[in-house]
Fold these 2 entries.
Entry 1:
Amino acid sequence: MKFTLPAFCLLSFFAISQAAEDIASVTRPNILFIFADDWGWGDLSCHDHPYVKTPNIDRLAKEGTDFHRFTVASGVCSPSRAAVMTGHFPARNHIDGHFAHPDDNAGRNMPDWLPTQVTTIPKILKTAGYATAHFGKWHLANNMIPDSPPPLEYGYDEYGAFNCSGEQMPFYEDSQRAIAFMEKSKQGNQPFYINLWIHEPHTPHHVIPEYQWRFRELGERDNIYAAILSHADDRIGEVLDALDEMGLAGNTLVIFSSDNGPAPKTDKLSAKYDSATGVGFDTGASMGVTGGRKGAKHTLYEGGIGVPFLARWPGKIAPGKVDGTTMISAVDLLPTFSEIAGAALPGGYVPDGISQVKALEGEIVEGRSKPLFWKLNDPFPETKPSKAPKPSYVIVENRWKLLSSADAATIELYDISADPYEKNDLKDENPEVAKELLAKIDEWKATLPTAPDANSISSRRTK
C-alpha cells in the first residue's frame, strides 16, 4: 500500500505530460505547400489575367499575403524542385537541368536523381513529429529511370507521384490523396507537412470538356489553357474546403507557388504523349504570361524565375496584403518551414537560404542578408537570333542582379529592387559593381562539385 500514492502521482504525471504533448502537436502549424508546374506570374485572376479564372487560389491572396518578389532557384523544373527540397542552390548537387533519360543526363554531366543523403524538408520536419507526404509531380528523378529511389527515401511517410520510378499516380488524384492524408493526420493528432505538386499547366495539357465549356467563348488555344488552369484551381479548392471542414484552416500555413515561369508557346497546336501522364496538347496551347516580366521558362530573367507566391496563415500572415518589396527565394523555404515547425537544422548543415518567418508575418526587408546564385547550362547570347539570350550564371545581392555568360564576355546588370522588369541595363554606369559581382560568381563556382554524386547514377546508362 505504501506505493499507492507515488504510483498514482507517477501515472498522473505521465497523463499530464501526454496531454501537454498532445496539445503541442495540435498547436504546431500544419504546412501545405502547393507547387504548380510552369504557372506564370500573370496566370491568376487576382493578377489581372484577362480570362483565366482562379477563384480558389485568389482566396489565398484575399485571406493571406501576395508576395510579388519571390523567385525560384532555376528556370526549369528539376533544379527548381531540388532547391525547395534541400534549401541549397541546385548546382551544389550538380543539377543544372531537368532529369530525363539516363543517357541524356550523362551527356549533361548530371546525376540521375537527387542524392538521397541530402538534408530535406520532410526529414527535418519528421524530427519535430510531423507526418509528411508528397502528392503530384516528383521529377527529382524520372519515370524513365526505373532504378531511381522513390520519394519515401527522402523523408516522406506517404506519397503518390508521377515523373518518378514505379507506379505513376494519375495527376488528377492529387487533391483527394492530400485530403485523405490530412484526415489521417488529424485522427492521429499529428501535424502534417504536405507537398501538393500539381501538374498544370505543364504539357501535355489534359483538357476536360466540362472545363472547356466554362470558356467556350474563347479561341481554341486560350480555351484549352483556361480550362486546365480552372481544373487545377478546382482541385486546390477541394483541399482548402477540406481544411475548413476539418477545422484545420486556422492552424495551417498554405502556400501556392510555381516551379518556374510559363513555357513559350509554339506555332502549331498538336498532340503530345508523355509516358508519365498520357496524351494531351503540346505547347501550342501554352498561353502563359509573366505579368510583364522579361523572359520565360528556360531563362534566368524574372519571367523565368519570378513566380506567384501566395501565403495564408490565419493570425500570423496579414490578409489581403501585397508585399512588393521583400525578396524571398525558394532556398528560404527549408529554414522557414523548420523554424515554423520548431525543428532544429541538422548539425553541419548550412542552408543557402534564410528563414523568412518575419517576412511572412509582415516585416518588410529591403534586399537580402545573403546573396542568391543561379546556374543554367544554356548558351548566352543565344545562338539562334530569333530567341532571347539566356544567361548561364546569375547573382542577386542586395539591390543588384548581374547576369553573365559562362565566359563572362556578355553581362547585364540591373537594379532589381527598382527595376524588377529588367528594362535598364546599368553595367556601363556601374562597372565596379559589375566587376565585384563577377568576382563573387567566380568564388561561388569554385565551391561547386565538378562531377555528380557517384551514388546517384542509374544502372541504365549506356554512356
Entry 2:
Amino acid sequence: MPHLSRRTALRLAAGLTAGSALPLAGCGRGAGPAAATGSAAPVDSSPATGTVAVWAAQGDADVLDKVIAPFKKANPDVRVKFTLIPNAEYYTKLQAAVAAGKGPDVAQFFPESQAQFLDAKTLKPVPDGLVDPDAFFKSLWDAGVADGVAYTVPWYAYTYALVYRADLAKKAGVSAPATWDDMTPFLKALQGAGAGHGLGADIGWDVFNGQDVAMYAWQAGGSLLSSGGKWTLDTPAMADALKYNASFFTSGTADTGGPTFLDAQPYFVSGKTATMITGPWVIGQLDTAAKKTGWTASHVATAPLPAGSAGSVSFSAGGSWGVLAGSGNADAAWKLVRHIAQPSTQIAQYKAYSSLPAVISAWDDPAIKGQPLLDAFFTQLKDTRAFPKVTTWQQVATRMGKEMEAVAKGKETAAKAAANIQAYAESVGTGSE
C-alpha cells in the first residue's frame, strides 16, 4: 500500500492547483541505466484503436487526460478512459482488481514502492524497442527491472537535496556544506546569523525517515541488501547513518519538537529554521508561504546533499507506468505508454503539473533548462539509487524511522538501533523466501 506522497500532502494542505508553477533546472545526461528491457514482441507504429482503461493515483495524473491530447488526435479510433483513485487507497484497490481479474489496461506505479507488482503474473514485460532505457535516469529505470526483465516505464522523477536560506548563509559568510563534517558547522553558522534552528528536520519518525536513513547509509558506503538478497542493515554504515541524523539534534541545530511536516515551510520562511532536506516541489511553494512574490529568488539557494564517506547519494522516486498482464488491449496500452515517455509529453506534463521529467533530454527544453534553484535536484538525480525491490521494504523503512527517533532522542545507541532494524527485517523477510 503506498504512502501519501509528501508532494501530494503539500498540495492538499496548500490548496494548490494543478498548474501551480514549479520551475526545474539543468541539462545533460546521467550514466546509462541497466540495459534490461522486455521480452515481448515490438509494438509497431500503426494507430492505436479500441479502449484503453487507465488507473492512476490522484495527483500528477489529474492533468494527464489533457496532456495526452496529441495522442488522442493522432489516434482518433482509440478511447482512453481514466480512473483516478485517492493516493492512500490506490495500491489496495489496484491489487484487489488485479486479483479479481478486473484490473485496467495501464496502471500507474511508484518506483519507490512497486516491487510487489514486478512479475509476469501481474505485468507484461516492456516490449523490445518501445523506449530507450538510456533515456531515463538510471535508478528510475532500474526500479522497474526484476530478474533482468523491465516491467515499468518511468514517467516523472524526484529526489531530495538541500534547500537553505541563502540570505542567512551570506550574512554568516558560509557556503553550502559539501560533506557530513561540514553540516553541523554550517547549520550553527546559520543560527548565528539569526535562525532559530539550522535545520527543519523531519520528525514524523515514519517511512519517510526510513528513506532518509537508507540514503545516509548509502552515503556512508552501506547497502541495504546483499547481492544474495539478504538484509544488510546491522552494519557500521547503518550505525553511522543513524548517528549522522542524530547529530542534528544532539548538536542543537535541529529540534525533536518541530516543525511538523506541514509546518516546515512556514518555519523556513520565518527564520525559525534555515535549511530543509526535501524534494523539489517545495521551491515552487515558498513564495506562497512567504505571501510575497519573488521572496524565494532573493532568499533561497539549493545544493546537492552533503557527502558521506561514499559520496552524495540520494534516492529516486516518482511515477511510472505498466501494462497489466490481463490487459485486453495491450497493443494500444503500450502505444499510450510510449507516448507518455516521449520528451514532448513529459515537458507538457511539467507545464501542466510541475512534474519533473524522468526522460533526461526533456531537461534541455527552454521551459525547464537553467532554473538555478532546482539545478541541485537535477545534479542529485544523476546520483541516486532505487530502494530495495522487495515487497516488505515499506514495513522495514517504517521500522527504520521508529529506530531513528530512539537514537535522535538519546533513548538508544545507533548500534542497538541497527541491530533492531536487522532483526525486524529478518523477521518479515523480503517476500521472496
